[in-house]
């Protein structure tokens, strides 16, 4: 008697668009997941790696890069297995990082996870607003110098471009969820490759040109221009830059939730993580090491600016435009979990509200019918507006990102994946595996604290010279 009913449900066209838990059917593959990861990881942080290697030197710099690559990949595989619980293949799906922690650990750790994740995501979106405007201003400056000479007064304001960036994000933020974001991540990933390759090519040309630069095994040297304490602070900041350049765990579960249910999501996510982290490490190693070889111990914070605003101005313009386009996509990758969390909570709190729950189809030229939700329209527009205003009021906010990253890297990338693995597999206390996992966890905690100290020192330095709404 049950068979006809089952067959009826299977043949129902509405059921074909639903997943095993009644939600919208997922269509993501390891390719789209890899694109999301590359978009999230190869951010503008790649541009600071030449500076980071310069602080650490030829021995410690590449070693730290490789160490964090291995740590990030290892903990991401642990986190991928926690997506379904209690079984990593047949268990119940958990849609967010908080859901995963709730299923595996529970208690106050869920709130700690939420605070670490969402504070980091908000900070990153504000930082990306600043960084994208800086890249467009760099294009304006290089064109100004090219047209008017190298002595021209070329100091355009960042603020109009922050507003333009925010307007673009207001439109893109209406993309309903991560499942509809794959095309934007692929475009952003291509852009990240483009500006990394341009910077790499210019660095190789600089080295091949025979320009003499001083590099050392231990990096920048204490002397007239660098005190011993500044060397320590810079070393701390460099370790922090490298550690946080790999941190994509804040969005890993949300990325995994876009994958099709077969093949198993954890296997596909591990493949995507391997591709994403390997690709990232290759680019980081090339850009960091060759950038250091090109500029030596005087490597700038952004190695694209080390080539000046002059010639080849058109190539540096292309690189900076690619950075801006990449950050447009990366902003969406990092803000979608915030949007999803707030909208889910509001729908649970006010399930009868038409303003929150109802959608209507609107015909968009060249795109067909597009679902519009009034709450999503108002709330997401308000979020983008607020982040843009904060970026405009505190344009040095990038200094906060190191501090925010220090507070989120350890719990989200290391602590929770390890603790959930220990709880899920039921590893005996003081066994060999338990001990070395704990050693790894505490080592990363110390690194996060060290990076936080360096970030606070950098923040205090920025505050001393801060002048609101002043064009740099």
Automatic annotation (TrEMBL):
It comes from the Eukaryota. Keywords: Amino-acid transport, Cell membrane, Membrane, Symport, Transmembrane, Transmembrane helix, Transport. The chain crosses the membrane at residues 33-53, 59-83, 118-139, 159-176, 183-205, 232-253, 274-294, 314-334, 377-394, 400-418, 439-460. Residues 1-23 are annotated as: Disordered. One of its GO terms (biological process) is amino acid transport. Residues 26-460 form the Amino acid transporter transmembrane domain. GO terms for cellular component: plasma membrane. It is found in: Cell membrane. GO terms for molecular function: symporter activity. InterPro entries: AA_transpt_TM (IPR013057). Residues 1-16 have a biased composition (Polar residues). Signal peptide: none annotated. PANTHER family: OS05G0424000 PROTEIN-RELATED. Belongs to the amino acid/polyamine transporter 2 family. Amino acid/auxin permease (AAAP) (TC 2.A.18.2) subfamily. This is Amino acid transporter transmembrane domain-containing protein. It comes from Mikania micrantha.
